[in-house]
Amino acid sequence: MTTKTIHCFWIGMSALALVSLAIGFRNGVSGATDFQWMPAKALLSGIDPYVAEVGGPTFACYAPSCLLLLTPWTLISEDTARVAWLVMNIVFMLAFLLVMCRLFVRPGERSKWLFGMTVLMFLSLPFRQLLECGQHIGFSLAFFSLALLCSRRGWWLVSGLCLIPAAFKYTSMIPLMCVFVMMGCWRELGVAILGHVLLTLLAALLSGTAPWVLILGSLRIGTTQTGEGIADLASLAAVLGCSAVDIWAIVGYAICLGGLICLCVRFRGMSHGDGLLPILALLATFSCCACYHRLYDFTVLLIVPFLMPRLCRGRWAVVLTLGWFFVGFRALAPFASTAVVIVISFSMILMLLAVLLVQVEKAFQGRVCK
Fold first, then answer.
1. 314-357 pLDDT, tens per residue?
2. pLDDT computed for residue 236 by the predictor
3. What angle do CA 218, 220, 226 make, to 5 degrees?
4. Residue 184 pLDDT more than 60?
5. Residues of 163-197 as b/e, b for ≥16 C-beta within 10 angstroms?
6. Can you tell me the distance from the alpha carbon of 98 to that of 121, in angstroms, rounded to the nearest whole number?
7. 234 pLDDT above the threshold of 60
8. For site-directed labelling of 43, which of 52, 153, 173, 309 has its Cα 20 to 30 A away?
């Protein structure tokens, strides 16, 4: 293609991206029901946020230590906080892309990658839904990437502190945090765990509720959405008409936990070298099928495109999977049954996992494509 054609292509994509961003922002101003302002306000007011009547339409579904991180937003009105959080979600995701470019893209190519990934992000359905629902995955990804950057520079204390807010969206981030286990970054993990213990104790003190009651309350509410995801085993079992969906969820959790343990054992000793990006892409994909997730959580797949220049084979799997979750999912959903959509989603994730696992193995053995 000529330079003029390429420029026209990117101008067109940029225009579409801005339209997509505007739609997400508009819907987020009137929606953003997942923000958790009310539960955080209840916690700060000395009330157990997991009592059903406290949250109203926005029930508390995060750990007490995570809700405590949102309490600064309760100092302003809910409507103002919702708009502020919407703007911050855009900032968080841009910061995430900026740090990823800093970590994994050559200096001379960073501006091009940042522009291209920003356009891709704005166009993607998961990002738009993240804005519309007021979700927290962008918040977690931004601090997780900062934790990686600080760890690479040897700032283990700052890295550990960044992991505390990074764990907010724990269903997505725990698999990603396994990379710190593989690299033997125990001090960073220790700081993060200690931080959440202290925050949980503070939440218990503020609410006048025992810490274990708060933790069990968050788990109880979290399990009510079992089988409502789009690419996990329990959701697949639900749409296929299987009985005992909760049992399938437990089986899925057990498989995923076993898988994470096996990955941590197999790739222990991983460093901040060429093997880091492939394992991050693998863990990000793994997190999508680990448990219940809706489309906005698939924003973590924005890690995967950074691996494209290093893939020896299987780029088609990346394109197909991202194309499905970023565009195709919404396009097909009105014309196909929920079962068909979830079966395709589950199959796409398994396909990408297989491709990435091969790439990680090659990277770990020092056979990365340059």
1. 788 889 989 988 888 777 766 666 778 888 888 899 899 888 88
2. 78
3. 110
4. yes
5. bbbbbbbbbbbbbbbbbbbbbebeebbebbeebbe
6. 12
7. yes
8. 173
- The number of beta carbons lying within 10 Å of the beta carbon of residue 199 is 18
Task: For residue 33, give the nearest of 53, 65, 60 by alpha carbon.
Answer: 60
Mean per-residue pLDDT, 227-247: 72
Count Cβ atoms within 10 A of the Cβ of residue 208 and give its class: 0-12 exposed, 13-18 middle, 19 or more buried.
Answer: exposed
CB atoms within 10 A of CB 311: 21
Number of H helices, E strands in the chain: 18, 0
Q: Are 200 and 215 in contact, with CB atoms under 8 Å apart?
A: yes
User: CB-based contacts of 180: which residues, under 8 Å, 6+ apart?
Assistant: 147, 151, 163, 188, 189
Amino acid at 240: L
pTM for the full model? 0.89
What is the rounded distance in angstroms from the CA atom of residue 156 to the CA atom of residue 47?
A: 35
